[in-house]
Write a structure and sequence with these properties.
The protein is of the alpha/beta class. Helix content is 41%, strand content 12%.
Length: 357
């Protein structure tokens, strides 16, 4: 009986701790936007952007920029009562002058070519390998620089995955592709360090497999490399009392297949799955389906990522936002509020008033 009481007390304490974390989350439905930093900080330009965001009910801004730029931006954001998230590209590092000096840091595809030599799909696809220890340290140092920015709402990870092994159905024709199987030139994760590590465990080189893309163990091994990296980055942020969020591919099962990303295994504070339905030739209802899978698969808040050009019809945009809320998301983030039409802006104003006032 005594052990049963003790267990009950511990269970209650655990439940209370979980409740405490939940209570700290705002009850409001959050409207966010991604936006890129300009070359140099211009207060007048950013005040104009912030005025737009506030008029739409947007409270959180995910800004892609250096630590120095974000440090300059923070006082203006605080003045406007806006939360700033430091949006950082993690493994895809186009034109990174430091990384470019280390070709051995880059991801390798099944054909043996690294991502600096062979740039899949587009020139800016220049991916580091999560298996190279020096590349991992370089990434960690990039995150550490961002933790010095005062007052961040979160560090927001992006491109923390492998190259798209399968593109969305609407994107394949743009590259003259029919990806009805995993093509070797787009199948990454074959860095020599990765193959050697796998061989130590299984006494097999994945390149010796007739179909390495079908090996469950090899896929999971590569997924684990991303997951451990992300969770190490989370620890760096949390040590400075900064939250960690991430832009991820649609629901975890889909993300695993398309880009080798098991984001439901990550210790995030929130995720922003990019539910860009037009990329997959799906209708607006698909956004609700995908949002529900995301909410059901993880214990942290979901903020649905929406693509404004794919929701040009204001009715579709409204439906997408309503579905996101109905399926349990804590908010949405638009890519991007900077180019919304007047009809789309009206939807933001309407739903922010309805949801939060």
């Amino acid at each position: 009986m005594k052990s049963l009481i003790t267990f009950s007390v511990l269970l209650l304490l655990f439940a209370c701790n979980r409740t405490t974390v939940t209570v700290t989350e705002s009850n409001s439905f959050v409207f966010s936007t991604w936006t890129h930093a300009t070359d140099k900080y211009n207060e007048e330009e950013w005040q104009e952007k912030f005025d737009l965001y506030k008029s739409l009910g947007i409270s959180d801004v995910l800004v892609g920029g250096s630590a120095e730029f974000l440090t300059e931006l923070m006082p203006l954001a605080n003045k406007n009562n806006l939360k700033i998230h430091a949006w950082v590209w993690v493994l895809n590092r186009p034109n990174d002058t430091i990384a470019n000096k280390h070709p051995e840091w880059y991801a390798v595809n099944r054909n043996g070519k690294n991502s600096l030599e062979y740039r899949a799909y587009v020139d800016y696809y220049q991916w580091l390998s999560p298996f190279h220890p020096e590349a991992r340290e370089y990434i960690k140092n990039n995150i550490k620089k961002l933790t010095a920015v005062p007052g961040l709402a979160s560090i927001h990870l992006d491109y923390v995955r492998y190259v798209d092994v399968i593109l969305g159905a609407d994107l394949q024709p743009k590259y003259g592709l029919v990806q009805d199987h995993e093509m070797p030139e787009y199948d990454y994760g074959y860095h020599p360090i990765a193959r050697e590590g796998f061989k130590k465990i299984f006494n097999k080189d994945p390149l010796d497999f007739e179909h390495p893309e079908l090996s469950t163990e090899w896929r999971q091994y590569r997924l684990n490399a991303i997951t451990t990296l992300v969770n190490e980055l989370v620890e760096i942020a949390h040590e400075k009392d900064i939250k960690m969020t991430a832009a991820v591919f649609p629901f975890p099962e889909m993300a695993r297949q398309m880009v080798r990303q098991a984001w439901n295994d990550w210790n995030l504070d929130a995720s922003y799955p990019m539910l860009y339905q037009n990329f997959y030739r799906e209708n607006v209802n698909w956004i609700g389906f995908a949002a529900e899978q995301c909410v059901n698969d993880v214990g942290f808040p979901i903020h649905v990522g929406l693509y404004s050009p794919g929701l040009e019809n204001a009715t579709d945009l409204e439906q997408a936002i309503r579905l996101s809320k109905e399926k349990g998301a804590k908010g949405i983030s638009i890519f991007t509020a900077d180019d919304l039409s007047e009809e789309q802006k009206a939807v933001f104003v309407k739903l922010n008033k309805e949801f939060n006032q």
